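Quick one, probably user error.
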C-alpha cells in the first residue's frame, strides 16, 4: 500500500474489516496521523500533514477557513512541533515562558511553562462549563491545582486578575477563599470572614476575624446539623499547619448561630 500511497499502511480490525493508517516522519520522529476507511483519505491526511510541516506560513487560523482531513488537535500538535521542535501529544503550542492549550482556533487556555509537563500528558475535557483531566481513573477539575474547589464561584471564591477567564497562569489567579462555606465580607472598614452552610437554603453560621476560625466554624456547623438528623454529604475543611490542640481550642470556642445550634430536621 505504501508504494501507491506514500505514508499509508493497511491494517485489519478484529472483525476483519480493513482500514488504513496514515503516518509520517519528521525530525526523526514517527508521527501517527490517524486511521481512515479508505487509502485515498489516509493519503490525503499524509499529504496534509506534510504540507503543514513544510510550509511555515500555515497557522492555526487557517484551519477554520477550509475543510481538512486532519483534526484540529493534530494541526496544533504538528504546528507546535514544526515551530518549536518539541513533540507534544496534546493540543499545546509553546510560547516563551507560557503555553496555549487549544480547543478551537479561537478558544484556548494559557498556562505557565511549569505546567507544561503535566498538560503534555493530561488531556483537558470540557463538560457542563467545567474542565477536567483524568488521573488515576478519576476526573479532577483543573481548578484543584490552584487550591480552588470545583463548586467555587468565580469572582466570589476566586478571580482572574486581568479579567481573562482563560488565563490560568498562576500570577493571574487570586484565591479569595480556599475553604468550604467561607466568604470574605467588608464591615466597618475591615475584612471579616462569613461562614454559611446550605441546608434547606443558606444558613449564616457566623462572622469571624480569621479565615481559619470561619473554616472551623463551618466544620462545627456540619457536625451539629448531622447530629440533628440532616442526612446529606458535606465536605469539611482541612486547615493545613494547625495542630490538633489548636484546632480543638478554636472549635470549642467559636460561636455558632442559634439557628444552627438548635436546628432540627
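Nope, works fine. Designed sequence:
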Amino acid at each position: 500500500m505504501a508504494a501507491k500511497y506514500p505514508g499509508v499502511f493497511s491494517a485489519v480490525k478484529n472483525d476483519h474489516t480493513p482500514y488504513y493508517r496514515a503516518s509520517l516522519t519528521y525530525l526523526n520522529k514517527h508521527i501517527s496521523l490517524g486511521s481512515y476507511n479508505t487509502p485515498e483519505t489516509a493519503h490525503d491526511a499524509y499529504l496534509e500533514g506534510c504540507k503543514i510541516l513544510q510550509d511555515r506560513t500555515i497557522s492555526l487560523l487557517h484551519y477554520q477557513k477550509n475543510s481538512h482531513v486532519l483534526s484540529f488537535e493534530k494541526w496544533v500538535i504538528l504546528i507546535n512541533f514544526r515551530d518549536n521542535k518539541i513533540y507534544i501529544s496534546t493540543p499545546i503550542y509553546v510560547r516563551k515562558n507560557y503555553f496555549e492549550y487549544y480547543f478551537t482556533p479561537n478558544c484556548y487556555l494559557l498556562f505557565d511553562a511549569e505546567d507544561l509537563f503535566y498538560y503534555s500528558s493530561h488531556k483537558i475535557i470540557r463538560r457542563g462549563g467545567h474542565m477536567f483531566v483524568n488521573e488515576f481513573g478519576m476526573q479532577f477539575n483543573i481548578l484543584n491545582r490552584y487550591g480552588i474547589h470545583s463548586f467555587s464561584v468565580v469572582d466570589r471564591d476566586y478571580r482572574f486578575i486581568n479579567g481573562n477567564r482563560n488565563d490560568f497562569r498562576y500570577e493571574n489567579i487570586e484565591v479569595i477563599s480556599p475553604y468550604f462555606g467561607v466568604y470574605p465580607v467588608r464591615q466597618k472598614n475591615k475584612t471579616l470572614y462569613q461562614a454559611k452552610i446550605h441546608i434547606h437554603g443558606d444558613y449564616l453560621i457566623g462572622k469571624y476575624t480569621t479565615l481559619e476560625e470561619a473554616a472551623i466554624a463551618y466544620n462545627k456547623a456540619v457536625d451539629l446539623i448531622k447530629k440533628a438528623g440532616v442526612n446529606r454529604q458535606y465536605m469539611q475543611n482541612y486547615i493545613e499547619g494547625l495542630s490538633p490542640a489548636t484546632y480543638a481550642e478554636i472549635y470549642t470556642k467559636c460561636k455558632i448561630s442559634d439557628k444552627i445550634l438548635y436546628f432540627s430536621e
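Residues 203 and 239 are 22 Å apart (CA to CA).
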